[in-house]
Task: structure prediction
Amino acid sequence: MERVKECENQRRSLLFLDDSQARRRRWCSMDRRGNLAKIAGCRSRSRTAAPS
Result:
């Protein structure tokens, strides 16, 4: 059952079947939740980065 995982989306938790080769998938759908999480992380990092 290690292929059944919980989506890492903080707003809503869904279970999904990780069918990736490396079994490292983190979101139920990269098209929706995964992409939004990556965008949020990028924006958060750019806000906290010190100007050069």
Q: What stands out?
A: The chain has one domain: 4-48. The chain has one helix and two strands. Residues 11 and 20 are 23 Å apart (CA to CA).
